[in-house]
Amino acid sequence: MPAAPALDNTLGAMLLGAQLSLILYGFGLHQFYRYLRLYPSDILFLKAVVWAVMTLDTCHTVLSMIMCYHYMVQNYDNPATLVQTHWTVNVSVLFLGLTTVVSQSFYARRVYLVGKRYRIIVAIAAAYLVVVLGLTLAGVVVGFQTPNVVQFLSEYNWLASSCFGSTVFVDVLLTGTLIFALWRSRTGIRQTDSVLDLLMIYAINTGLLTSVVGLLVFVFSLATPKNFIYLSITFVDNKLYANSVLAALNSRQRLSAQITQSPALELDTIASSRGQTSRVRSALATSGSGEVPVVFPKTKGSKSTPLSFAPNVHTDGLEHFDIEKNDSRDIADVDSEQDRHL
User: What is the rounded distance in angstroms from the CA atom of residue 242 to the CA atom of residue 24?
Assistant: First the structure.
């Protein structure tokens, strides 16, 4: 009779991962509720992303609970069942892959809207997402055909490690590209650069945590493939993707308020360089605000007409901003015009 596997890095890791993922799922539900209350008029694409991510995350949560019940309750006195893959393991991997692809599609769209020069990066990321989806589907099929965990890990662990490695690559690629685009938009104007610094911090915060946790999954899938440590981390990774997308969308109002409360930017300084103005436009287009335009008022003693960066549509704030002339309008007037676009 084969020896029973160790429980600390199998059932113990699974239990801890499931418990932490349930906490993060609660955060995700709260974010989902806030989104429905704050942004009922968002474009269809964003609504579809939110509902898809939340549905997939809910299914993944249910599967993790069934998985724990199977191994820890129904077979609590039979640890040898750990060498047999339960169907929930394979299906949860499918939902993890789908959540990753949907979430990364949201971030890829954000980079796509920054400018044409970065769309080749989006194409590369899209190709890797296709690879991630293909590896996920292959892993699920092979998992059902190879119910023995030891055999699967011995022969097909490369599927899991390749999938996780590709996911980390896409994470770093998209986040790094967005930060680079914002960095290139720096003009040397102190007030403008402070806004760009805020946007860079925002971009880092929405992509850093998922990248770090994804890297942990990748490392553990290579270093300790014959236990459940990396499987338990995927429970958390799935929730972080859902939470990061929802948090990025829900933070638009606060980010917009922070930008508009920044010290006034001098119009004549900004207008002095057409190239600089263009880069500011591109950077502000990635802010994710979409609620309040960024207004550049007249400088003291200047007869110049103030400009504002007002979004064409009330959306995720990632659309390009148009430079508009404002003779005597205030922010409320611009907001009213935005509402008429809905």
Answer: 9
